[in-house]
Design a protein that fits this description.
Blueprint lengths: L14 H10 L4 E8 L5 E7 L4 E6 L7 H16 L16 E3 L2 E7 L11 H18 L12 H14 L5 H25 L5 E3 L8 E4 L2 E4 L6 E3 L13 H18 L10 H18 L5 H5 L6 H19 L7
Antiparallel strand pairs: 1-2, 2-3, 3-5, 4-5, 6-9, 7-8
């Protein structure tokens, strides 16, 4: 059987090709090549004869256009130029997006850091301050090609993709249809009630896996999902646990944020709706990548009835969370 690029998008991405791609942009590796944890793209740490190491990121074919990737790079470079802690792409004669044997890739410095630990109140406040500075830059211009955080893209389209893909077992299909439709209705109601809020350029996927921590504080990496959206999109993922735990974390984050930026407190009501959209979108993301052999290996439970039973239950719980959210205040 012939395997298409769509079925195995990275099948031809061998270690030799990665080393050749690095050499093509003037980076001579010393043979030390380490695959880093990444499902959407393929990312490698490349050692060199000197002390310097680089990270090569090969973009998933057909996910983003060249223009969209270049907007990601331009935004990241604009942050770095203002001395904000981000991993910025290497530019060669102003070009940051390269191509080698059909694969598009970018090169980033390998930055030192560890996984963030947010037990300290000061750590969350520092995250808030840093994000406020990032958002100040994000508000200076608008993306022209990157997507927006929207109910249509993350909610309605995600639900339609799941149903079209026949991932939900027949015995649970009606339950999923009902729960997901109800959740979308509640999300739409909350967005309409809040009304229009300012949309700025954001990191877009600001979870702890995309943050390194060094002696100076956070370093934000992987702006692959940067988008136009409300400020709270980059803040809510630090809030988890019961109402008291979320309240405590929020007070620390916003205390730092307001040192450098203003926050529209209407956006607090969007936290649980945005969490609901992420739940819908995450399931559709796995389903949409199921043809990639890496995904069945990483998410073997996705095709099992017990996952969909749990997922439907989570959607129903999220409806309750939206209707009775944790009371977040300053």
């Amino acid at each position: 059987m012939t395997i298409s690029v769509t079925a195995q998008p990275f099948a031809a991405l061998t270690p030799e090709l990665v080393l050749d791609a690095a050499a093509a942009v003037g980076i001579d590796g010393d043979g030390r090549l380490l695959a880093l944890n990444s499902y959407e793209n393929r990312v490698y740490r490349l050692g060199t004869a000197g002390a310097e190491a680089w990270v090569l990121k090969f973009y998933r074919p057909r996910r983003w256009s060249d223009a969209q990737i270049r907007e990601e790079h331009d935004f990241t470079l604009s942050l770095a130029e203002r001395e904000l802690p981000v991993a910025a792409p290497l530019a060669i004669d102003t070009e940051t997006l390269f191509e080698h044997r059909g694969f598009r890739f970018a090169v980033f410095p390998c930055l030192p850091g560890r996984a963030p630990e947010l037990d300290s109140p000061e750590a969350l406040a520092l995250l808030g301050r840093t994000l406020a500075r990032i958002h100040a830059v994000g508000g200076l211009e608008r993306f022209q090609d990157r997507p927006a955080i929207s109910i249509e893209r993350l909610g309605r389209r995600a639900r339609a993709d799941i149903l079209a893909g026949r991932f939900v077992p027949d015995a649970l299909r009606a339950s999923y249809e009902s729960a997901s439709a109800h959740l979308l209705g509640v999300i739409e109601r909350e967005f309409e009630s809040v009304g229009p809020v300012p949309m700025i350029r954001l990191h877009g996927d600001c979870h702890l896996g995309n943050i390194l921590w060094n002696e100076r504080g956070p370093v934000f990496v992987d702006l692959d999902d940067c988008a136009m959206g409300p400020r709270v999109q980059d803040l809510w993922m630090f809030l988890s646990g019961d109402a008291g735990e979320q309240q405590s974390a929020w007070e620390r984050v916003i205390s730092g944020y307001e040192d450098f930026g203003n926050f529209d407190y209407r956006e607090l009501r969007l936290i649980e709706p945005l969490r609901g959209l992420r739940m819908l979108h995450h399931a559709a993301w796995i389903g949409g990548r199921w043809h990639d052999p890496a995904f069945p290996r990483a998410f073997p439970w996705f095709g099992e009835p017990r996952y969909w039973e749990s997922h439907v239950g989570d959607l129903l719980d999220q409806i309750a969370a939206i209707e009775d959210p944790p009371i977040l205040r300053r």
